[in-house]
Amino acid sequence: MQYNSLAEFLKTGASALKKGPIALIFAEDEAEIDTTLRHHLNTGFATVLVFMPEAFMLAEDVAAVAHRITYDTSVPDAAQGAVNQLIDAAAGQWMFYCYNAEYLFYPFCETRTVGEMLAYHTEERRFSMLTYVVDLYADNLDRHPDAVSLDSAHLDKSGYYALARPDPDNHNHPKERQLDFFGGLRWRYEEHIPAKRRKIDRIALFRAKEGLRLREDHTFNDEEYNTYACPWHHNLTAALCSFRTAKALKRNPGSTFEIDTFRWHNSAPFEWHSRQLLDLGLMEPGQWF
């Protein structure tokens, strides 16, 4: 299932959006495209759309089940533009977006599908889910100069914090149930990261509705969608384990020669299991047991 453009998909393949939850995956380079797709297919997404340049390769097994859309992912706000075009077409469906070499984990994902989790989340009258982008990086940059290695992936086990999110329209008072989260490589190497890109929170899971729009900072124009919990108790959160920042820091000429290794005293091998992320406080189950 291959489409030459997003416009062609919306014209001839939009019926695929009737089956959710829907994953949108944006391939910015060729790192781990196939494993990213397989991970989210195995997680239980009913429909997977992958946006990628025509020159990128896709393995036969995932090409047979994913909807490949030729798309220039190098332009500014490429993901934002595509997500916003698809929201109205998929109104009522749960959607998820990420980039290649990013992997969604949520509580008990080894034994429960993403559809089961979202069904419970919907019963709690929640229509979005906060995800923390947890940076992954290879343990040895000499062996893995692009900083990507599934077998030797590491993460930071501490160094995460949150600040109240100010509301400029309300004299800089904090927005209700909204926080800005920081940590990982964007915190440790903040001198190489623009200030507006240092946050690690992303509303990566959301229920589409007409008029909803994704903004440049990974928040939505409906402020309730940007909250981490409902008014009466804490809700589920998820983690998006991502090599994206490590790749960027090693690709950027301004930072690559200053980084010999991403490992430090608070690094730990990534176990590829939700229990580790729960134990580190990088996501929480809320009332879902």
* Spatial gap, N to C terminus: 38 Å
- Could you report the average pLDDT, rounded to the nearest whole number? 93
Order of helices and strands: EHEHEHEHEEHEEEEEHEEHEH
How much of the sequence lies in strands comes to: 25-35%
Question: How would you describe this structure to a colleague?
Answer:
The protein has 289 residues and is of the alpha/beta class. Helices cover 22% and strands 25% of the residues. It is built from 8 helices and 14 strands. The strands form 3 sheets. A 9-stranded mixed beta sheet has the order 1-4-3-2-5-12-7-13-6. It has a 3-stranded antiparallel beta sheet with strand order 8-9-14, with no helix packed on it. A two-stranded antiparallel sheet has the order 10-11. Helix 2 links the parallel strand 2 and strand 3 (47-52). The longest helix is centred in the first third of the chain and has 12 residues, at 78-89.
What secondary-structure arrangement, pairings included, does this model have?
Elements: E1 2-3, H1 6-12, E2 22-26, H2 33-43, E3 47-52, H3 60-63, E4 67-70, H4 78-89, E5 94-99, E6 102-105, H5 114-123, E7 128-135, E8 137-138, E9 153-156, E10 161-167, E11 173-182, H6 184-188, E12 201-207, E13 238-242, H7 244-251, E14 267-269, H8 274-279
Parallel strand pairs: 1-4, 2-3, 2-5, 3-4, 7-13
Antiparallel strand pairs: 5-12, 6-13, 7-12, 8-9, 9-14, 10-11
